[in-house]
Amino acid sequence: MTTVLSNIIEHHARKNQRLVSLEEDLALAKLEEEKLKATIEALEKEKSEMNARVALMERKEAKMLFLSLLEAKMEGFQIANHPGTIGGFENLNLTIPKKWVEIPMFNLEEFE
Questions:
Q1: What is the pTM of this model?
Q2: Residue 76 has pLDDT above 80, yes or no
Q3: Region 70-74: what's the mean pLDDT?
Q4: CA separation (Å) from 23 to 29, 81, 99?
Q5: Contacts made by residues 32-39, CB under 8 angstroms, sequence distance 24+
Q6: Phi, psi (5° rounding) for residue 70?
Q7: Burial grade of 102 (CB within 10 A; 0-12, 13-18, 19 or more)
Q8: Residue-range definition of the domain harbouring residue 103
Q9: Where is coiled-coil annotated (predicted)?
Q10: How many domains does one find in the chain?
């Protein structure tokens, strides 16, 4: 009879040990999940900042292009609109990247 009780107690002790081990694994998994969430948030913030920098650089490129076109016009070049150009240089057959075509023209006051 004591052997049966001893076996039952041993069996429950092993079950409890496995349960404790699973709870520890769950706690570690939750910590890892929190770390991953923090990493994802940091990466999303970095992506947003990089997108903002890219937009700023594209705007600066567009401003430089606009100033170049303005300067060329002031120097007497004939400026005409051609497909794939922003007011392309008719005399020089200069083409401009398509993404710049979508950028609206600027006021000169923005550059002063």
A1: 0.48
A2: no
A3: 72
A4: 10, 70, 55
A5: none
A6: -65, -45
A7: exposed
A8: 2-111
A9: 12-60
A10: 1
